[in-house]
């Protein structure tokens, strides 16, 4: 019984991973990148590093926090696109509570 339950969990995880589409933002305009994320909710964008030749960079970009895991928040990020070097998008990140605490302590 445990084996069947474990296998079902792995199948659900695999299905969720397959559901996210992958794109190369450098072959799309910034407007199209943003529209694709807005339409699909979450996508993986993969592109080459500008600083390290041949190094692929990728991440999961989201429309809003509903597509983030529990405990994560939406944070602004930038990716290259066909028409600009810095297209504004959003990623999910864990909040940096130490950063907020340091800012609060500086004020008081």
TrEMBL record:
The molecule here is called KTSC domain-containing protein
Please state the span of the N-terminal signal peptide per the UniProt entry: 1-19
Q: Which UniProt keywords apply?
A: Signal
Judging by the UniProt lineage, the source's domain of life is: Bacteria
């Amino acid at each position: 019984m445990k084996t069947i339950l474990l296998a079902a969990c792995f199948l659900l995880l695999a299905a969720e991973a397959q559901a996210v589409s992958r794109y190369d933002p450098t072959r799309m305009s910034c407007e199209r990148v943003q529209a694709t994320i807005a339409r699909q909710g979450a996508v993986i964008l993969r592109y080459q590093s500008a600083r390290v030749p041949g190094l692929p960079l990728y991440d999961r970009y989201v429309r809003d926090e509903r597509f983030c895991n529990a405990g994560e928040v939406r944070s602004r990020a930038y990716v290259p696109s066909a028409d600009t070097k810095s297209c504004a998008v959003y990623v999910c990140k864990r909040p940096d509570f130490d950063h907020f605490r340091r800012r609060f302590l500086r004020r008081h």
